């Protein structure tokens, strides 16, 4: 049965984003817990457009175990748009890193396998996420890892689509996003997701954003130069050969050389993930 706004009771604020506020809510009659993202009616038109686009993408992905499950959406009389999703009780990988410290390779192999499962599903349906980063990957106490926040995702018309718009979180953007001409000719939204996944795993292993030193404040111009003109970052020596190789396959500057999600699902690094994790 469809859930209406009046059936839900707010319990807590889970997070704020550019888009709106996410609440932990309780369904009054079943006591089930959900996450409810509310985009206020006074939000700017871009934000409202993103909310509608996020809804239409989440609606198409409800049979993927690696995408946060969509349970419906409604527009309140006030004009607020609300998106009801499954509640992920472990929060984001960004907070897991901040509170629990860096991740072991076994844990990263599990994250990689689940996120790649989600990306392979999305890419096969022509959807590019375009904002893969630790803050947009959620975990729960059942050990599941899921992709969230489809606010800037895109249903691509063709496999390769030229794109000059800056969407997503700049730091995680691939060189081909900044300068499509210089890197393989065309900006490819699918390959860009793989770059962002490589940076995400790298960050969770070393504890800070790859192109910056620990504690260094991000300066946008320096960062963009490092991403476009520097060599891709490489992992410390403590990382295994398999992990080095996996990250290298994600962080190829030429988007055409980057492995696809389907190819990476066969990479030996994923064998480090214990089945029972
Ligand atoms: P931004 O664009 O700034 O990343 P946003 O407005 O698009 O943010 P989300 O990233 O979807 O919103 O959610 C914001 C925060 O709310 C997340 O970082 C997370 O902490 C929390 N959150 C979102 N969805 C859920 C969920 N299903 N379960 C638990 N927490 C969630
Ligand atoms: Mg977000």
From TrEMBL:
Keywords attached to this entry: ATP-binding, Kinase, Nucleotide-binding, Phosphoprotein, Serine/threonine-protein kinase, Transferase
Superkingdom as given in the UniProt entry: Eukaryota
Gene3D superfamilies in UniProt: Phosphorylase Kinase, domain 1, Transferase(Phosphotransferase) domain 1
Binding positions for ATP per the UniProt entry: 37
Keyword Phosphoprotein included in the entry's annotation: yes
Pfam families tied to this protein: Pkinase
Single GO term (MF): protein serine/threonine kinase activity
Enzyme Commission number(s) from the entry: 2.7.12.2
GO biological process assignments: response to other organism; response to stress
Start and end residues of each Protein kinase domain: 8-270
Family per record: Belongs to the protein kinase superfamily. STE Ser/Thr protein kinase family. MAP kinase kinase subfamily.
Protein name: mitogen-activated protein kinase kinase
Species of origin: Psophocarpus tetragonolobus
């Amino acid at each position: 049965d469809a859930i209406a706004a009046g059936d839900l009771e707010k319990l807590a604020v889970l997070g704020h984003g550019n888009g709106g506020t996410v609440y932990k809510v309780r369904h009054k009659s079943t006591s089930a817990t959900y996450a409810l993202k509310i985009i206020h009616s006074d939000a700017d038109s871009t934000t409202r457009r993103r909310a509608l686009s996020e809804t239409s993408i989440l609606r198409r992905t409800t049979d993927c175990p690696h995408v946060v499950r969509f349970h419906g959406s409604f527009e309140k009389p006030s004009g607020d748009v609300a998106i009801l999703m499954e509640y992920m009780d472990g929060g984001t990988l960004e907070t897991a890193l901040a509170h629990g410290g860096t991740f072991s390779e076994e844990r990263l192999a599990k994250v990689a396998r689940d996120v790649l499962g989600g990306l392979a599903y999305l890419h096969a349906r022509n959807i590019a996420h375009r904002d893969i980063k630790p803050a947009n990957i959620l975990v729960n106490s059942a050990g599941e890892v899921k992709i969230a926040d489809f606010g800037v995702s895109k249903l691509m018309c063709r496999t390769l689509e030229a794109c000059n718009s800056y969407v997503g979180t700049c730091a995680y953007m691939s060189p081909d996003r900044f300068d499509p001409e210089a890197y393989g000719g065309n900006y490819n939204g699918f390959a860009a997701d793989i770059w962002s996944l490589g940076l995400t795993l790298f960050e969770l292993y070393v504890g800070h954003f790859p192109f910056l030193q620990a504690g260094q404040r991000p300066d946008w111009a320096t960062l963009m130069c490092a991403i476009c003109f520097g060599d891709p970052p490489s992992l410390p020596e403590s990382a295994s050969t398999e992990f080095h190789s996996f990250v290298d396959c994600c962080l190829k500057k030429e988007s055409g050389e980057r492995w696809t999600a389907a190819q990476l699902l066969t990479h030996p690094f994923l064998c480090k993930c214990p089945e029972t994790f």
